Amino acid sequence: MTTYILRRLLLAIPVLLGVSFLVFWSIRWVPGDPAIALAGELATPEFVAQVRQEMGLDQPVLVQYGRYLWRAVQGDMGRSVKSSLPVVQEITTRLPKTLTLAATSLLLSALIGIPIGIFSATRRNTWFDGGSMTFALIGVSMPIFWLGLMLMILFAVLIPKWFELPGPLLPPTGTGTWQHLVMPSIALAANSMAIQARMTRACMLEVLRQDYIRTARAKGQVERLVVYRHALRNALLPIVTIVGLQFGTLMGGAVLTETVFAWPGIGRLLVDAIGFRDYPVIQATVLVIALGFVLTNLVVDILYAYLDPRIRYN
Amino acid sequence: MKRSLYVLLSLLVLAGMVLAACGGPAATATEAPAQPEQPAEATKAPEPTAVPPTEAPPEPKTLTVASGTDIENMNIHLVTSSPSFSVLEHIYQPLFSMSEEGVLEPLLAESLNSAAEGVYEVKLRQGISFTDGTPFNAEAVKANLDWMLNADNKAPFRGTLLGKVTEVTVLDEYTVQIKTDGPFAPLPAHLSHGAVAMVSPKALEQGVDFLAENAVGTGPYVLKSWARDEAVTLERNPDYWGDAPKIDTVVFKVIKEDGARIVEIEAGTIDVAIRVPPAEIPRLQANPDIELVITPGLRTIYIFFNVTEEPFTDVRVRQAVNYAVDKDAIVSSLFSDAALVSSAPFAPPIFGYAAQQPYKRDIEKAKALLAEAGVAPGTKVSMYHPTGRYIQDALVADAVRASLKEIGLEVELKTLEWPQYVPTVRKTKADGNDVQFAMLGWGTPTMDADYALFALFHSTQHPPGFNGAFYSNPEVDALLDEGRSTLDAAKRQAAYKKAIEIIWQDAPWLFLYSEVQVTAIRKGVTGFIVHPDESLIAQFADKE
Question: ipTM of the predicted structure?
Answer without folding.
Answer: 0.78
